[in-house]
Each structure stands twice: as C-alpha cells, then as structure tokens.
Specification:
It is built from six helices and six strands, in the order E-E-E-H-E-E-E-H-H-H-H-H. The chain is of the alpha+beta class. It has two domains: about 110 residues, no CATH class; about 50 residues, no CATH class. It has a six-stranded antiparallel beta sheet. The longest helix is centred in the last third of the chain and has 24 residues. The protein is elongated, with a radius of gyration of 21 Å. It starts with 11 loop residues before the first strand and ends with a helix.
Length: about 180
Amino acid sequence: MKCPNCKSAVLSATKLEAGLPAMGCPQCKGALVSLLYYRDWAERVSFPESETGEDIKLEEVSDNNAGQLCPKCGRIMSKYRISGSVTNKIDYCVACDEAWLDGGEWELLKALKLGDKIPTVLSDKWQRHVRHEASEQKWTDRLIKQVGQKSAAKAQEFREWVINHPNKSEILFYLSHEE
C-alpha cells in the first residue's frame, strides 16, 4: 500500500501505541489505523489525565486538505473535523473502516484527550458539536474585532447571564427599546 499523502512511499507496519498496530509512512509520519483494532485497543487502555493538571498548549499540525484516496480500496475518504478549536481533520474510509491520521494528528488527538475516542469524533453528533463550536468562535472573533477585547469580554459575561435568566425575554425587550 502507498501513502495517500506522499503518493509514492510504501506504508509499513508500525504501532501508534503499545498494542495499537497501524500502517505508517516513513516520509510524512502519517498512519492508517484499522478501527477494528483501534476499538479493541481503546477498550483495554485508559489515558492518564495531565499530570500537572494544566492544559496542554495545542500546536496545530499540518493537515492535508486535499481529498485522500484510501490506500486499501482506492475510494475517496471522508473528512471529519477533530475539534472546533483546531482545523485538522481525520480522513476516514467507510468501506474499509480505516482512519488516516496525518503526521502529528495522533499526538494532537491525545493532547485534546480524544486519543481513545476516534469513533466518537467520526459521529454525526460530534460533527454537529464541532460546527457549532466553530460558529461560536467566529461570532466571538467578530465581536472582538468590532468592539475590542475588553468590551467583548463584558458582552460575553452579560450574554451568559441573560441567557440563563428566568426573565430573559423581558430583559431583551427592555434592551431593544430605544428612547
């Protein structure tokens, strides 16, 4: 099998983690993971929480935005966004039940605490959540650009308060009333 990224490199047997086999590319460091083996592996392991308790600083890894062909069957793989906070996508072949992870994406999944949740990331529910998260971030970025960081923070704080207030509609009506 040839690497769907490099097109010429031959994939060779490797392991993403102990007990998790994959077919890896020696050039781009991408990996083809059988979700059959992955599910079995994920049931047997537990990912430790961050030892320091601090959030890991996420660095986006390069992602191939072009359509990928499955190295096994040659069909076009579907792209599934990992998170609303990063633009990386998992390439997935439904026919073969195989996922292609670009070089560094496995580490990214683990940093996002999604290393044992690839099938969840591939679900419709997760993808709706990711789209909603990305949309919210765009609105926030737009607000910051228009009114500045400090005012945007106040607006967000007020928004969270008013959304959960029992008299939300009366408050919004009052705010929309111009004198």
